Automatic annotation (TrEMBL):
Gene3D superfamilies: Glycogen Phosphorylase B. It comes from the Bacteria. Keywords: Glycosyltransferase, Transferase. This is Glycosyltransferase involved in cell wall biosynthesis. The keyword Zinc-finger does not apply. One of its GO terms (molecular function) is glycosyltransferase activity. The keyword Hydrolase does not apply.
Length: 359
């Protein structure tokens, strides 16, 4: 959903964006919600048959830049760039590939790229090994967010009501974990850490909040959700852990929490990390993937992703010290404003679109 997120900022900086999407897809709908009517095709295969129509669309609208965000879309992008060599073709790898892509097809497709963007140094290192491109054609470009919805504080009454809605008792430290509820996101280790926190600090008042869809339609693993609920009950944490479900108001929810956890084992970037930091929340994150690039000791704590004892220790330290929570939260928000805003991201992106040398 990245393209629709950046369209308003592209427009604000003077660029006119167009979209190409599958008919009836969420991506097509997101383009419309962002204010543009996309060109649509019934399938990726049919798009190849309609390449003449797409080329005509590019010519009529004087489009000079193509930007793909899925490797399955690059086949069409590379074909268009082959047929119209003046096009500048970009591809963002949002995951970080793990298998080499140096066969004849990939050499042809990726050879048409003006630039490949990696969303972290971690994924760039993987991409350098995987893609048939010279290092200078693979650039790290961090993602960014609009920090304005991530308020550093809520009105007292609003915060109290929202915390109650999330299941947080009065006076408890709210320890949240937002994100898709799937094995790779680390919720299982987090639950084990909370059980150890009870043992280590029996007098500490806290409440855990899982924020994320509970069904497959909302991106979560239903079997894993059920097992997680069973484990919470087995550990005697039913009254101390809430399953809040999907929330469309995540910025407000983050501001209602006291500590935000991101225990994902292999984040390609860590959008939740900078969202929590933008909300001035201290973060406890996994010391793996790209998270250490975003988070340091000035804004939170890094912990081994598979070590519940270490997680319990870090959570206990933060939960018992409100002054530290505030200090780390303010430092995190300042870091986001300095390095991870959507405006900063778009300025770097359009500089590449325009062919400007990297700073």
């Amino acid at each position: 959903m990245y393209p629709a997120r950046i369209i308003p900022e592209l427009a604000r900086q003077g660029w006119q964006a167009h979209g190409l999407a599958l008919e009836g897809s969420w991506v097509a709908e997101s383009f419309v919600e962002a204010g543009i009517t996309p060109l649509t095709v019934p399938s990726r295969g049919r798009a190849l048959w309609r390449v003449g129509r797409i080329l005509a669309y590019l010519k009529v609208h004087e489009i000079r830049v193509l930007h793909c965000h899925k490797s399955s879309d690059l086949r069409l992008g590379a074909l268009l760039a082959t047929l119209r060599p003046e096009l500048r073709l970009f591809f963002t790898d949002h995951m970080g590939v793990t298998r080499p892509k140096k066969d004849p097809y990939h050499r042809w497709a990726y050879g048409r790229l003006t630039r490949l963007f990696s969303i972290s140094e971690t994924t760039r290192a993987r991409n350098l090994r995987a893609f048939p491109l010279r290092p200078e054609r693979i650039r790290r470009l961090y993602l960014g967010i609009d920090p304005s919805p991530y308020v550093a504080g809520l009105a007292a009454d609003e915060r109290r009501a929202l915390r109650a809605e999330l299941g947080v008792p009065e006076g408890a430290v709210a320890i949240g974990l937002p994100g898709r509820i799937t094995p790779g996101k680390g919720q299982a280790v987090w639950v084990e850490a909370l059980a150890r926190l009870v043992e280590a600090r029996p007098t500490l008042a806290w409440h855990g909040v899982l924020i994320g869809g509970l069904g497959a339609g909302e991106g979560s693993n239903e079997v894993f959700v059920a097992k997680l609920r069973e484990r919470v009950a087995a550990l005697g944490l039913t009254e101390r852990v809430s399953f809040a479900g999907f929330r469309g108001d995540l910025p407000r929810c983050l501001a209602a929490l006291d500590i935000v956890c991101v225990p994902s084992r292999n984040e390609a970037f860590g959008l939740t990390v900078i969202e929590a930091m933008a909300a001035a929340r201290p973060v406890v994150g996994a010391d793996s993937g790209a998270i250490p690039e975003l988070l340091d000791a000035t804004a939170g704590r890094l912990v081994a992703p598979e070590d519940p004892e270490a997680w319990a220790e870090a959570l206990g330290e933060l939960a018992a010290d409100t002054a530290m929570q505030h200090r780390l939260g303010q430092a995190g928000r300042a870091r986001v404003l300095a390095a991870f805003t959507l405006e900063t991201h778009i300025r770097a992106l359009v500089g590449e679109y325009a062919g400007e040398p990297a700073a």
